[in-house]
Amino acid sequence: MALAGVFFLDMEVNCLPGFSRIVRVETGDTECVDCNLTGGVVGMIPYLNQSERCVQCGGDRTFSELVDPTHDEMTRKCVCPADYELVEQVGKRLLESQMCVPCGPDGCSGCVFPYSLKETGECVCASGYTTLYDASCVPTEVYNGVVVAAVGATTTFQPLNLNNKGILGPSVTSVVVRSYAMDSAVQCMRGMAVGCSLLFNMCVLMMYDVDSLPCKLYLSVRDKRTSYRRLPPLFDGDNTGHLHQRRWRPAGNHKYHGRW
């Protein structure tokens, strides 16, 4: 029997406004939960696996200078009075609800944690957070824990020389792999399908070389994610030999066969 206000999904999608996106750690299943059923809104700060939480508008009494926002049922968001801005975290302390904090002497920054305002007026990742290629922020400790697998990896590969019947051509260093592999691995580890897809395709680009940067990161993420949702195996051509069993061989048609 279906649960009221809960929708189960088979793939990564964006939930409707007012619905929080929940990824179950045990199974990897995704649900959209209607926060409005409890009079709440979708929180601004997700969990490590990018699951969103439903929070209330007001009610946290941790700091005396914070005031309660109002709940806008039309937009399904918390709204602060003039000269206040909405927060869900103060410093490193996560609040129990969304609250309103007075704006500083220079006005409201408009930067929601973990972003902070630079002198130029730009919102950037706060101290202790690392900026990914899509301008999102992840805790630096989490980032370092994923990319440690990149030690000793290469971003150079030898593509086929198509004019010489399968003989390997000159070595090429991939700027794309060097720029995006580590960030996509962090996203994949945090449950984001777009990061996993990008990482998989870069591993294919590197000819499935287990010493290449994206393939090493793929193997590391795969081993760390076994507790809830396993990553698909990667194999080439019509051969079902998996990446961790052997290196790529320059023969046949090579395609990405993993499904996410």
Automatic annotation (TrEMBL):
Task: Please list the GO biological process terms of this entry.
Answer: cilium assembly
**What GO cellular-component annotations does this UniProt entry give?**
MKS complex
Q: Read off the SUPFAM superfamilies from this record.
A: Growth factor receptor domain
**InterPro entries (alphabetical):** Growth_fac_rcpt_cys_sf, Meckelin
**Domain of life the protein comes from:** Eukaryota
Looking up Pfam families in the UniProt record yields: Meckelin (PF09773)
Name this polypeptide is given: Uncharacterized protein
What species is given as this protein's source? Answer: Trypanosoma cruzi
| Higher taxonomy | Eukaryota, Discoba, Euglenozoa, Kinetoplastea, Metakinetoplastina
